[in-house]
Amino acid sequence: xxxxxxxxxxxxxxxxxxxxxxxxxxxxxxxxxxxxxxxxxxxxxxxxxxxxxxxxxxxxxxxxxxxxxxxxxxxxxxxxxxxxxxxxxxxxxxxxxxxxxxxxxxxxxxxxxxxxxxxxxxxxxxxxxxxxxxxxxxxxxxxxxxxxxxxxxxxxxxxxxxxxxxxxxxxxxxxxxxxxxxxxxxxxxxxxxxxxxxxxxxxxxxxxxxxxxxxxxxxxxxxxxxxxxxxxxxxxxxxxxxxxxxxxxxxxxxxxxxxxxxxxxxxxxxxxxxxxxxxxxxxxxxxxxxxxxxxxxxxxxxxxxxxxxxxxxxxxxxxx
Length: 320
Prior knowledge:
The chain is of the alpha/beta class. It has helices at residues 2-30, 84-90, 117-130, 143-154, 187-191, 196-206, 214-224, 227-239, 245-248, 270-279, 304-314; strands at residues 46-50, 53-60, 70-73, 96-99, 136-141, 159-165, 256-261, 286-291. Strands 1-2-4-3-5-6-7-8 form an eight-stranded mixed beta sheet, with helices on both faces. α10 (270-279) links the parallel β7 and β8. α6 (196-206) crosses α7 (214-224). The longest helix is centred in the first third of the chain and has 29 residues, at 2-30.
């Protein structure tokens, strides 16, 4: 009897190992790494060496040089392409700059391996210096929002207005004391084997009742199939920790608008109210906009009212 059990256990184990090997071989080919630069994905992108990375960026509306520039910063996992629609509309009235943070999109990895909040804030500051931008309207989504509000609190003289779109910075994992954010250094190899359908489902989950375009989703998958992007994502998840936001947010002096998806699956609506109350502790009034049925990625969800609110707010009289 025991011989029979051992015989079939060995066969079962062998079958499992064979399936794992076949999956690894299939995944190694189907989900192989793809280059991003010098492809259609990089058309019209410019590059500049900033700090320890080569930063990819786009600049639009430069003929509107008499107006305050708008700088857009993307969410974790994504890239500056998430702003395509909003940037196109904003460029009718303002110079608009957007860039990929190191290790995301078309930007290179950080040579010093630093993906912390402070390093990201420094990248923003050096980007502004390079383009001769002394003062800007800052718009950040999720991780980009956390970067923008910390920068605004520390550099009030350089921020004319601040817009936080489903901003990170309050959620518990940003303040986790877990070493390396709970991720091993080699996690980017495992992420390689996530199938396309799961990445599509991730975007669908973030956008709640709305749907991102197939163009946006295919671009997201294309960037995720790049080894440097996955390494950058893991590095940023390990390093990017927010400070004590209860002391930082009341330091913000710029007129601020908080934009939030009512069905944000990652950051609940209550956090929008929390942002508003903390920033207003200093007497700085905050405009709060909640969008019914919207999720975490407002710029790609086709929420026209959100875009119109943003256009109105960045206008010279928009904070009145």
